[in-house]
Amino acid sequence: MARTVVGVLRGGASSEYDLSLKTGGAILNALPESDYDVRDILIDKQGYWHSQGRPAEPHRAIAQVDVVVNGLHGGAGEDGRVQRILESAGIPYTGSRAHSSALSLNKIQSGLATSKAGIHRPRAVAFTLSHGMHTGDMSKFVFKRFGPPYMVKPGNEGASHGIRLAATFVELPDVLGDILDAFGSAIVEEFVRGDEATVGIIEGFRGEELYVLPPARVVYPATSQFLHFEHHRAGEVRHMVPSDFTDLEKKALMDAARRAHRTLGLSQFSRADFIMTRRGPHLLEVNALPGLHEHAAFPRMLESVGASLTDFLRHVIGGVRR
Length: 322
What we know:
With 322 residues, the chain is α+β, with helices and mostly antiparallel strands. It contains eleven helices and 15 strands.
C-alpha cells in the first residue's frame, strides 16, 4: 500500500513562530515512516515558504502532498489565510476551516459569539484604533462598567502574547495605548481570580461525536500574577492532569469546552482555556490550533487517556482524507 504523503506546515510570520517550530517538530517525529511520506513545509518569519529546506511558492510546496497537517500558531496560520491557500489548491488539511479558525483567533468576535451562547466570560470592553477615542476616555468608559485590576490583551494574538496587567485605573491609559499602538486592537477584561484550566476536544475520537479530554490545571511560576507569553516560550508552563479539580468542576469545564467548540463552528479538534472561579468556569479563549510540542497541554491530556500524539495524528489525518 502506498504511503500517504503528508506536508507538515510550521513556522509562520507570527509572534508564535518558535512555538510552531516545536509543534511542527513534534508532528514530524510522531508520524511513522512506515505509513507516511512526510514533507517539512516551513514558512519563515518574513512569510516565505520552503519545502524540504528549499524556497518554494506556496502552490509548489503543497503540490505533491495528499494532506497538510497544519502546525502553525497565530497569524496567517490561524486567521484563515493559509486555510484559503490550501482550499484553493484543493489540498485537504487538518484543523478548522478558514472562517471558524479566524473567528476563534479574533478575541473580540469570539468573545461576542460565546457570550451570546451563554458561556461565562470575564466582563470585557474592546477597542480599536478606528474608534478615534483618547485612551483616557477609553479608560473612563471601562471604569464605569467594572473596576480594576484589568487584564489588557491584543485582539488577535494567541499564547498569551502581549497581555498586560493594569493594576489600577491610573495605569490603564498607558497600557491601553501601548497595546493599541503595537497591535491595533485591545480588549480590557476584568481580572478574574481563580485557577487556570485547559480542556481539549477531539471530534469523532473513540466513537464519540465530541471526545472531551480531561481538564488540566495550568501551573506557571508563583512569582507571576498571570500566565503570559514568556512562560510559554521559556517552557515554564506545566499542566497537571489528572488535575485536582472536583468532579463537579471538571464536568463544568468539559461542558463549557464542548459548547465553545460548537458555538465557534470549529472542526476536528480545539482547546479551550478557562479560569475556574467559585462561581464556575470563565472562558478566556479557544484555540483552533493548539500546541502539540513537549511542553504543551494537548499531548499531556492525550497521555492521561492512554493515547499518543501518533494516535491523535492518525485520527485527524484519516478524518480529512475520508
